Amino acid sequence: MTSSAPDRNLAMELVRTTEAAALAASNWVGRGDKEGADGAAVDAMRLIMGTVGMTGTVIIGEGEKDDAPMLYNGEVVGDGSEPHVDIAVDPVEGTTLTANGRGGATAIIAVSETGTMFNPGPIVYMEKIATGPEAAKAISIEASVGENVKAVAKAKGLDVREVTVMVLDRPRHAPIIEEVREVGARIHLISDGDAPGAISTAIDGSGIDILFGIGGTPEGVIAAAALKCLGGAIVGRLYPRDDAEREAAIAFGHDLERPLSTDDLVAGDNCFFAATGITTGSILRGVRYNRLGATTHSLVMRSRSGTVRFVEAQHRHNKLDV
């Protein structure tokens, strides 16, 4: 198969898929049914994705994680035209947030040139550290939590006490939280959604300087695409949950001791990212309904140009049949 590098800003077309997913999922906000929200978003995203001018292979999808019949790993999507690309999707990043009506749920898609996106295979989790452009070269997965916090503070010209660290609120992260507090930095705990959390470290005005934790490997790849567009960085290391997963990862060809950089997770410098808020979070506003229809708020980015756009769109009632 012959491939070509994307020569247009695909993100401007891909945002239609995240808008559709967010609109579909918004009908399930607060209804206590995360499977219903995810299924509606997958259906809507897949429908619109079939109209986008590309031939995309899903590297990070829904199938293995959620037993979904669409947007599964290895599925080919798009209208069959050039370019050939790798795709990572999360139609609802924060299904629990959506089901419970909490803020921060997002519909996400990331695309890069074919053969450039890291395939986690059987590994579900990875250790992660993420930060924005000012400290992108300062973080290391092989350094301690305290050393990383101090390095970020120095790179950003802050006192350590001024650094805010985002951590997913899980029992496994108790040692990280303790070390952050020991070094004197502030903690910002989140209940779900560490991909938007990682991205927020590179968004001006988010108030987040660095993210630590063990979270989903697919979300790490998605965050890498976004941070590449923003000039930030994510570093990590694969984290098998048990001996069976460790053996499966080794059989898949993974080196479990290897530190992973942003470029390891998404190689090259022509990736695209789009995200639309489902419920309001630190970066994006959620879907809002009014007498005319619904309003969506999206983040649209391309790494090659460094373009970062926030797009607000009005969707009329009689056109909301996605």
State the helical fraction: 25-40%
Instruction: Determine the structural class based on helices, strands and strand pairing.
Output: alpha+beta
> How big a fraction of the residues is strand?
25-35%
Q: Measured on Cα atoms, how large is the radius of gyration? A: 19 Å
User: What sort of overall outline do the alpha carbons produce when their principal axes are compared?
Assistant: globular
* C-alpha end-to-end distance: 32 Å
Main sheet overview:
8 strands, mixed
| DSSP summary: helix tally | 10
Low-confidence stretches: none
Mean pLDDT: 93
Strand runs, count: 13
Q: Secondary-structure element order, as H and E?
A: HHEHEEHEEHEHEHEHEHHEEEE
Secondary-structure topology with pairs:
Elements: H1 11-26, H2 34-49, E1 55-60, H3 63-66, E2 76-77, E3 84-93, H4 95-100, E4 106-113, E5 125-131, H5 145-156, E6 164-168, H6 174-183, E7 186-190, H7 194-200, E8 210-216, H8 217-230, E9 233-238, H9 243-252, H10 262-265, E10 272-277, E11 288-290, E12 293-302, E13 307-316
Parallel strand pairs: 1-3, 6-7, 6-8
Antiparallel strand pairs: 1-2, 3-4, 4-10, 5-8, 5-9, 10-12, 11-12, 12-13
Helix pairs in contact: 1-2, 5-6, 7-8
Write a structural description.
There is one protein chain. With 322 residues, this protein is an alpha+beta fold. 31% of the residues lie in helices and 26% in strands. It is globular, with a radius of gyration of 19 Å.
Give a quick summary of the entry.
This protein has 322 residues and is an alpha+beta fold. The protein is built from 10 helices and 13 strands. The strands form 2 sheets. Strands 1, 2, 3, 4, 10, 11, 12 and 13 form an 8-stranded mixed sheet that branches.
